[in-house]
Amino acid sequence: MTIDEKYMREAVKQAKRAAAAGEVPIGCIIVSEDKIIARGYNRRTIDKNVLSHAEINAIRKACKKIGDWRLEGCTMYVTLEPCPMCAGAIVQARIPRVVMGCMNAKAGCAGSVLDLLHQEGFNHQVITETGVLGEECSQMMKNFFKELREKKKQP
Ligand SMILES: [Zn+2]
Questions:
Q1: Do the Cβ atoms of 86 and 42 come closer than 8 Å?
Q2: Exactly one of 23, 33, 55, 135 is catalytic; which is it?
Q3: Within 10 A of 61 (CB to CB), how many other CB atoms are there?
Q4: 108: CA distance to ligand 1 center in Å?
Q5: What's the gap in Å between 42 CA and the centre of ligand 1?
Q6: N or C: which end of the chain has fewer CB within 10 A?
Q7: Bridge partners of 78?
Q8: What separation in Å is there between the alpha carbon of 84 and the centre of ligand 1?
Q9: What is the β-pairing status of strands 74-80 and 97-102?
Q10: What pLDDT sits at residue 3?
Q11: Is 10 a catalytic residue?
């Protein structure tokens, strides 16, 4: 197992916490100096808050831990390609590297719909990797929506 896979496994654990709470399974962790400094999962429905994405929750905790709004020495691991809001926050926090599980063709902003993480005009560009435990992350999303559809079918 590579180091990226090891940390992505921790992000997957967070995604499973989201799924257990009935949320879309997206998980995120932030690593600094080979240590996990923050964990987050999607809590949009529980928190009744559109801002409560896995990445935003993890960024908030990482900033508190580091005591700075800049997360310059950090790597983010996230199970799904970030949305526009989270990609924006990643650029704002100047996170140098983001490792993704699977891509999000309908909302992703690291290359799918838009590419905010590699936008030349911005003062910060992100190094990205994708497909780390990609099959597992993608299957987790598919299973969640499949179960949701089945639940809806029941009278
Ligand atoms: Zn997001």
A1: no
A2: 55
A3: 17
A4: 9
A5: 9
A6: C
A7: 28, 100
A8: 7
A9: parallel
A10: 97
A11: no
Burial class (CB within 10 angstroms; exposed 0-12, middle 13-18, buried 19+) of 145: exposed
Local confidence band at 57 (pLDDT 50, 70, 90 cut-offs): very high
| Whether residue 54 has pLDDT greater than 80 | yes
Confidence of residue 16 (pLDDT cuts 50, 70, 90): very high
Sequence letter at residue 51: L
Distance CA 88, CA 76 (A): 14
- The rounded Å distance from CA 86 to ligand 1 centre is 4
What would the pLDDT profile of 95-118 be if each residue is shown by its tens digit?
A: 999 999 999 999 999 999 999 999
Residue pLDDT, tens place only, 123-138: 999 999 999 999 999 9
What is the CA(75)–ligand 1 centre distance, in A?
Answer: 17
Spatial separation of the C-alpha atoms in residues 107 and 62, rounded to whole Å: 24
